[in-house]
Amino acid sequence: MRFHLPTITACLIICCSCGNTASRHSNDPYELTDTTAYGLTSSQEGNGGVYFRTELYTHRKDTSLTYVKVFNYGGKLAAIQFYKGEKKHGPTITYDEKGGRQLGTYYRNDTAVDMRPFK
Q1: Of 11, 82, 92, 117, which residue is the least packed, with the fewest Cβ within 10 Å?
Q2: Which segments of 51-110 are extended strands (E)?
Q3: C-alpha dihedral sign at 98, 103, 109, 112
Q4: pLDDT means per 10 residues in the chain (119 residues)?
């Protein structure tokens, strides 16, 4: 029994530490790495607009939460904007021509930029 106690203790410590790192899940609706709760609802290409492609994603549990991804004509991500219902809700995140996130491009909720062509 005295040999099993340190082994059991070590196993419990290892299991607890693995469980803590594996179960990190964010409930932040603006966390771009946590998109498993959203599904692609609509996609539109071309039409001579400013953006090459626009994609609308809707939250599976709360359908009032959506976000829009727009892509430039080079096929790179240009911007992401979040909505709740018909109102802008959260940040607008823009990207440079290489697809890298631009610093200082988080706009306030009252910024009137509607990127959704879907009505």
Answers
A1: 11
A2: 53-59, 65-71, 77-84, 87-94
A3: negative
A4: 55 52 51 74 78 88 89 84 84 78 55 47
Beta strands across the sheet bearing 53-59: 38-45, 53-59, 65-71, 77-84, 87-94
pTM over 0.90: no
DSSP 102: P
Residue 62 in tokens: 């709360």
Got the DSSP string for 3-48? THHHHHHHHHHHHHHHHHHHT-----TT-TT--TTEEEEEEEE-TT
The three-state secondary structure class of 117 is coil
CA dihedral (95, 100, 103, 109) in degrees, to 10, reads 40
